[in-house]
Amino acid sequence: MLARRLILRHSMAFRIDVARDIAARAAPNPSESTPVMLAWALVETGKFDEAEKYLRYNPVPTAPAADPFESLVYPRIFRLREMVAAKKK
């Protein structure tokens, strides 16, 4: 939750550290959106190569109790992939 709040507040440096820590400690979970949030922060700070590895997979939507941040993840993941691909050209 902290990393997500920081992303919404645009606290760049701190949110990258917090999101990296969360992603490193989290058990594998197909519905986890933290990698996308981390990639978002990395793209916004110009770290496109590192962001690419967090954008490899789409998180699986949860049901019936969806994560309130899922609405940010699904449109954003495709935009982030587009931005990373454009930098690779």
How would you portray this structure in words?
This protein has helices at residues 2-9, 12-25, 34-44, 48-54, 70-88. Helix 1 runs antiparallel to helix 2 (12-25), helix 2 (12-25) packs antiparallel against helix 3 and helix 3 packs across helix 5 (70-88). Helices cover 66% and strands 0% of the residues. The chain has 5 helices and no strands. The mean pLDDT is 78. The protein has one domain. With 89 residues, the protein is mostly helical.
In a few lines, what is going on in this structure?
The protein is mainly alpha-helical and 89 residues long. Helix content is 66%, strand content 0%. The protein contains five helices and no strands.
Q: What ranges have pLDDT less than 50 throughout 5 or more consecutive residues?
A: none
What proportion of the residues form beta strands (DSSP E)?
under 5%
User: Helices and strands, in N-to-C order?
Assistant: HHHHH
Helix tally equals 5
* Main sheet summary: none
The beta-strand count equals 0
Q: Structural class of the secondary structure composition?
A: mainly alpha
Supply the number of structural domains. 1
How far apart lie the N and C ends? 35 Å
Rg from alpha-carbon coordinates: 12 Å
Overall, the morphology is globular
